[in-house]
Amino acid sequence: MKSKYRLLAGIAILWIGLLQPVEAQKASKQIGDLINQSDWFRLEEEYPKVTGQIRSVAVKALSEVMIGAYFNKPEETILLIDSLLEHHQEDLGFPNVSSMVALRGKLQGEIGLYAQSADGLYDFLNQIQAFAKKEDFPSHQQIADYYNVLRNEAAPLIVRPDQDSEIPMTIEEAGRGVLMFVPVRIHGKNYRFIFDTGAGSTFISKRLADEIGIRIIRDSLHIAGAFATGTGKSGILDSMEVGDIVFKNAVVTIADPNPAVDTVYQVDAVLGTDFMRLVGQVDIYPVDKKVVFPVKKSSLPDTGRNMWLYDGGLRLKVFSGDERLRFVFDTGNVRADMFYPYYQKHKEWIDKEGVKETISGGGFGGVRTFEVLRLPSIPMRLGDTSFQLKNIQVECNASDAESYQNGEDGSLGMDFINLFRRITINFDSMYLDVEKDN
Questions:
Q1: How far apart are alpha carbons 340 and 353 in whole angstroms?
Q2: What is the pTM of this model?
């Protein structure tokens, strides 16, 4: 389906609300504010409660699209965007139409519809030249160019037996903490991969890529890391085996050597959320040293969804007392950390109780040294399970790593994982569930 794009007056969500009855105004404003604040957890909670009161097509459409995009329903979200672009451009306004076209292209690319993604975005850019400049839409161009390179490639997929798959896992010292490793078989040889919920794609060092013989599809690639941006290449790994699950057509990020990072800790291979998303559910057993990929997925707990996904990165809804917190969920983080936004909210208490330290931290792209205040513990609750983050560090100065700390309160890494007997990561229903030892 090809949509015709027209220059339409952008209509702010709150203005739409003013033309409606008072109850509808209130509901539209409430939901519009959550969208503008990018508060996807609250949007997912509150929208179903007030949807019957909302008259605005734009508010309803944006709500359902964003919930679908962030809570891992790409196919349904693409169909919804198609329908909205076909029938409701006037209701949405051109700014929202433009955003939906970009989001649709991004979602199509993420599920392997590479040609559809590129063609739809190029079509949009060509059509708008009658009333706008293509240069004013760099995101559309970048997404289109990225997936155009992949247009003739097959979509990533898994082939698995109709039974639970189990693989061994080790937890090993790495820098100032520990990391989780799993075996992956490529061309008949086993390799150790970090099992990393913070990585959106499979990652391989240049040294290992040369050994394996990865097919390069892009010679130059900017790669965003935790603390900096690096360079690398992109390639296709036709097949790799994770236990008895075969992961085919993986788009692999290949990192150039970086002595500043490699001298601290050299990473050769990472298995990311591209694989986990396809298997649907991951059960991690730190004490038993195993990872299970069940065929039958667990049901959504009564506490509801507490995890969202975007650009391959996971975010968690966690409570500390009555305070709602948002965390990066990153098993590639050797510890657990609280970020500067959390410090700002609790400065007086943290300054009083914390012990100042200077530490170094590394990730893809670079290493940095920064000051923290270390606290004895912070009480937390995930779902209906309470726990304590002990000996937790709080970053007490504003960070330049904005992409890593995008308003999040902290990062839950291996310190968090090691608190529990079982950790279930369910991508179908988008929740994290944990179980302690009895």
A1: 16
A2: 0.91
